[in-house]
Write a structure and sequence with these properties.
8 strands; globular
């Protein structure tokens, strides 16, 4: 297995239209707003977070991840007007740390503009180029057809099904050699 750099400090990532920046204290309300939005959270984790759980996740991000130098979780902003678009991350899966998973959430008013595909593609590239990963995965609820379309557009293919307390979900993946061919 190739060595991975897990600790990357204050890295801003760019796409054609977006900037992915590590969260700052002033961005807390943005993340909490996403996590407490029922439409956004419909297919994420166990669903919408109560405000207390959203605030705890914010603290975990700042105190556990960022304070330890883990900088692969970003707030996403539009380049043209600096508005907050959503959230993006690439991290080891909680139960399969050999797999690194991309994730993204967008404010509902930003849906349908191609931002999720742009983010997914850039996270895959970051995983291969910066983290030196061999494979990148995404886990998606079976009924989340919009996210399935996003990862497929970004070059991922269906890998297999897995199950958790919430039921069956799909795992999509892309490997380094597949990415280089596209």
């Amino acid at each position: 297995m190739r060595k991975r750099r897990f600790f990357l400090f204050m890295k801003t990532i760019e796409t054609k239209r977006l900037l992915l920046k590590n969260y700052l204290e002033k961005d807390k309300e943005h993340l909490v707003s996403l996590l407490t939005d029922a439409a956004v959270m419909k297919n994420v984790d166990t669903g919408v977070f109560p405000i207390e759980k959203a605030n705890k996740l914010w603290l975990k991000l700042i105190e556990n991840f960022y304070s330890q130098g883990i900088r692969t979780i970003w707030a996403v902003f539009a380049k043209d007007d600096s508005r907050y678009i959503g959230h993006a991350a690439i991290r080891p899966r909680p139960t399969k740390t050999e797999d690194w998973e991309i994730s993204y959430m967008l404010k509902t008013e930003e849906w349908g503009k191609g931002f999720a595909t742009e983010i997914a593609g850039r996270l895959i590239e970051y995983g291969f180029d910066e983290l030196k990963l061999i494979k990148v995965v995404a886990t998606i609820d079976d009924g989340n057809f919009a996210s399935i379309k996003v990862v497929e557009k970004a070059g991922m293919s269906f890998s297999h099904y897995e199950y958790d307390d919430e039921g069956r979900f799909s795992v999509y993946s892309i490997k380094t050699e597949t990415h280089q061919q596209t």
